[in-house]
Design a protein that fits this description.
Elements lengths: L3 E5 L3 H13 L3 E5 L10 H4 L9 E4 L5 E4 L1 H12 L10 H31 L5 H23 L16 H11 L12 H11 L2 H7 L7 H7 L8 H15 L4
Parallel strand pairs: 1-2
Antiparallel strand pairs: 1-3, 3-4
Helix pairs in contact: 1-3, 1-6, 1-8, 4-5, 4-6, 5-7, 6-7
């Protein structure tokens, strides 16, 4: 029987958790959440995640305990499934640094790059101010990562002696890998690009990137810069639903 049920879709936030489950070597089963059909907003899903967003997990080995928010899922997996600290740390300062870089991604890079995606790809009218504002903020955050990795010739974000591959890297990697989707050229950040490519080459990462679909949008984008956008209808549908439900509230 699988240990974990993963509720996910092929987005940066979804991929980071499938990568973690593969790296941790956990037995899990996947439920592909159809975002276009608003499956993440159904009653059964919101009992697991009241916010109606992917990813979420249900720990079948612990009385079907649900966990939502990707950062919280990482901390949960570390607490319960990384006793040897292969992807986390025993030292208190390093544990704190790991949490700091996790929150940097969750509170900074993810939300800002999500907005860059929106204004660059999905806004019904081109608003150059919005595109510039969020792309530039992403570039600032990428510069922070670039500087961190250059500091002492680091291999990874956290840990002594060049760092150790940890959940902080897994969490950040998927968003950096999707830079092109937000119209950002990762080549501007060569140290960060090298870090991304090194992580992408890991066998467990390759497996995680194929969950729940065999081929994700970034592979397709690399092959064809004019690839169709499977998220367009879902994103705009969501914006219209938000406007109808909340737009007239004071």
């Amino acid at each position: 029987m699988p240990t974990i049920q993963l509720l996910t879709a092929a987005t940066p936030n979804g991929q980071k958790i499938s990568i973690a489950l593969e790296e941790f070597g956990l037995d899990y089963r996947t439920k592909h959440i159809n975002l276009a059909e608003d499956e993440q907003k159904t009653d059964w899903f919101t009992k697991i995640n009241p916010n109606g967003r992917i990813p979420a997990i249900v720990d079948l080995s612990r009385d079907s305990f649900p966990v939502f928010e990707s950062g919280a899922i990482f901390l949960y997996l570390v607490e319960h499934y990384d006793p040897e600290h292969k992807f986390s740390f025993t030292d208190a300062n390093e544990r704190s640094e790991m949490a700091q870089w996790l929150f940097f991604q969750n509170a900074g890079l993810g939300p800002m790059q999500g907005q860059a995606n929106h204004f660059f790809r999905y806004a019904p009218m081109k608003i150059q101010y919005g595109i510039d504002r969020y792309q530039n903020e992403c570039k600032r955050l990428y510069t922070v990562l670039e500087s961190r990795l250059k500091d002492g010739s680091r291999e990874y974000l956290v840990g002594a002696n060049g760092g150790k591959y940890s959940v902080a890297d897994m969490s950040t990697f998927t968003w950096v890998r999707w830079a092109g989707w937000a119209g950002i050229a990762l080549e501007q950040f060569p140290t960060l690009q090298k870090w991304m490519e090194k992580i992408e080459a890991r066998p467990a990462v390759q497996k995680g990137l194929r969950v729940p679909d065999a081929e994700d949008q970034i592979v397709k984008l690399r092959r064809d810069p004019n690839v169709g956008d499977p998220f367009q209808q879902w994103v705009m549908k969501g914006q219209n639903e938000l406007k109808d439900k909340h737009g007239n509230k004071g």
